[in-house]
Amino acid sequence: MAASTTRSPAAIDRHAVRLITRVSIAMAAVATLSLLYLLRHASIYCFPASHQPALTISLAPFPRSSCDAASRRVVPPDHRLAKLRASPRWRRRAASLAMSAFPPLRGLGILAAPSRVLCLAAGAGHAVDAFRASGTRDAIGVDLVEFPPLVRRADPHHLPFSDGAFDLVFSDDPSATSGALFPSHLAREAERTVRRGGGIALAFDQEIETVAVATLFKRLCVLDVKDVTLDGSQASGRS
């Protein structure tokens, strides 16, 4: 008598699982190889890029396709900085800092030519550039987004600097304090990185009470509060 060739339901399920697993592995391998190929080979329909995108930043709008990214014009950071320096807004901002913000800091004795300055929420680096132009050459800027050559990326709540590394911690952006995720952490980091005898100068909107800003700081006391105009917007400065 011939033996029955009918499989049990359990055997059929095991066979189906093995088949599905093999198909999934094969598809994953094909997808991985395809992705690696696309990453290593430029599209034949795009012009190949002749620059190093990691070292340059484009002034063009954000690309919508790989073709846009491959063919758009880019400029080195130094050329971009020169273009920004030539803009009227950059010149106005630098002039307002030099005339309104820096003289009071020099009068308080917390800013001099040899001072080491850290600019928080530095943006494109206009404050850093203004410090250097006024004679304080050792000025650096940090922000959440890197903007070379003047600004490096850093979290203001966890600054990558040693204790007492700076003579002055400065910010001309009111949102550096009001827009911080944890203002008390930012204040603590600013106090940590400034040396004993140094100072912290922050700009904040006039709607914010000075007392509210002062309570963020535990080690330093308020020396001076002034109303200054920065690029057409009035703000208060606390030192």
TrEMBL record:
A Gene Ontology molecular function term for this protein is: S-adenosylmethionine-dependent methyltransferase activity
- Note the InterPro entries from the entry: Methyltransf_11 (IPR013216), SAM-dependent_MTases_sf (IPR029063)
For this protein, the parts annotated as crossing the membrane are: 20-39
Q: Which Gene3D superfamilies match?
A: Vaccinia Virus protein VP39 (3.40.50.150)
Key words of the record: Membrane, Transmembrane, Transmembrane helix
Q: Which residues form the Methyltransferase type domain?
A: 120-200
Note the superkingdom of the native organism.
Eukaryota
PANTHER family assigned to the protein according to its UniProt record, in alphabetical order = F21J9.14, OS05G0500700 PROTEIN
Q: What is the official name of this protein in its record?
A: Methyltransferase type 11 domain-containing protein
Q: Give the originating organism.
A: Zea mays
